[in-house]
Amino acid sequence: MIGFTGAALVRADHERDDPAAFARCKADPSARLLLLTGLEPPVADDGALELVPMDPARDDALLLGYLEGTPLFVAGDGDATAPAMRSPTLMAALAVMPPADVALYGVARSLIDWHSRHGFCARCGHASVVARGGWARSCPGCGALHFPRTDPVVIMAVEHGDRVLLGRQPSWPVGRYSALAGFVEVGESVEEAVAREVLEEAGVAVDAVRYVASQPWPFPSQLMIACIATARDDALKIDVTELEHAFWATRDEVRAALAGDTSRFIAPPAHAIARSLLAVWVGE
Amino acid sequence: MIGFTGAALVRADHERDDPAAFARCKADPSARLLLLTGLEPPVADDGALELVPMDPARDDALLLGYLEGTPLFVAGDGDATAPAMRSPTLMAALAVMPPADVALYGVARSLIDWHSRHGFCARCGHASVVARGGWARSCPGCGALHFPRTDPVVIMAVEHGDRVLLGRQPSWPVGRYSALAGFVEVGESVEEAVAREVLEEAGVAVDAVRYVASQPWPFPSQLMIACIATARDDALKIDVTELEHAFWATRDEVRAALAGDTSRFIAPPAHAIARSLLAVWVGE
């Protein structure tokens, strides 16, 4: 299972646009609430995500959808705009949480975070309001409707013979390396974004981009698109504004790192698709 | 070649953040300008995109990148917010334009369009200003930096035996059918979005989602991700708020439509990845 996938959520697309259906969901005695603190998840004693009964009087809850047939809402208590990047506490909580709960938390976090950073209409500057059960914001000023943003990102295992290109950013934990990655820009395909990013960051031209898998990444809301590409040659010209260091790792070195050996490098963390991608590349 | 891919543009990532380099590009006597009218492309007599010498005095030009080694800027004259959806004139122009020019126009259009609809900071409501050579907007009020938005969309050939599921929206030209499609939502993978959309729109459960290809789509700025998926059974339950009609087309019917036969249905237009996807599905 790839991290942040596999939520048991059934998205209630029709209820979003139907105020009466939304009200029925809210009043449903079996309805539950996922209440984030800032952007942090509530965790029960057994490590699972804690859901509490929905309070029908709450007017800040967004309808995530249905979970096991009953409505599930999400709300945030506290300051969702506070810096809440992957805190050590959060990563420890996610490491023991059931995968379906990790995925559900990802949806909730991205949605709450998007609302907290998009309180105004980008078209006219007027304050916007929650719409469509929490899945949009509308502008009372100009009528524009704004939808949650998901940024596509490519992440690629660039191979040359029996080796793969790994790089690290200065902000990462010491020793950590991963596959290169970058945002898909306006006007390019996945395949073009992979080629551009690898050329920009490492000076390497690639061919034969093959899609492997995808993942939503809730920091804040990316769609990670994982690929394997073939390098034309192995000479590196690192863009030091993007990467601190990069090197070609052998299949054995990657296998060892994925198995927990940190002598050559520290593998990408659990839940990161880079880890699944490297596992596919070594043939696991 | 998939529509809107294959631009010869080299994106000048470093020049975007370097005002001196940007000024040098602008003053380069070989620099050229792609000047849109509203969002419509300038077309030369031979059907190619018309580029004119850059006027260094223009202060509204965005740096697209380098084309054949020389800087290329884009600007829009007229109202880019006017409804400029795929007009018949535009589609006729794109039908005869060289593919690399179509792709270049796509980048330019999406970028100009994004600026025209994002003049204000979504975080604080202050008027924002162009930043990073045209590839961002910054907010003088709160300091937020905003990047052009690209929305990932899945489009899928759902197959059952030797047939594929096609649908049509009421707004389309009479007789036109295409693969089902929908926006990837916050917190789901490509594979999850495919399964959810097909279930929501047609009542069909799918397995085995396989990626085929991708395409940027500049109306206004989507990343189209084309897949083939396998339906568990062929009973349809159409969501009439999404689709006007849907049916299972045989491989021969799809081949005929792609060849121009309109007796059963009209195939997706040139440049749409749906057309490439159906061509892959029939084995062409």
Task: Please give a handful of descriptors for the protein shown.
homodimer, 284 residues, alpha+beta, Nucleoside Triphosphate Pyrophosphohydrolase, 2 domains, six-stranded mixed beta sheet, 7 helices, 13 strands, 25% helix, 27% strand, globular
Assign the CATH architecture of the largest domain in chain A: Alpha-Beta Complex
In the predicted model, the low-confidence regions of chain A spanning at least 5 consecutive residues are none
The CATH class of the largest domain in chain A is: Alpha Beta
The main sheet of chain A comes to: 6 strands, mixed
Quickly count the helices of chain A: 7
Of all chain pairs, the largest interface belongs to: A-B, 55 and 55 residues
Tell me the helix content of chain A.
25-40%
Q: Average pLDDT value of chain A?
A: 95
Euclidean distance between termini CA atoms of chain A: 13 Å
Q: CATH superfamily of the largest domain in chain A, please?
A: Nucleoside Triphosphate Pyrophosphohydrolase
The secondary-structure class of chain A comes to alpha+beta
How many domains of chain A?
2
Provide the CATH topology of the largest domain in chain A: Nucleoside Triphosphate Pyrophosphohydrolase
Rg on CA atoms of chain A, Å: 21 Å
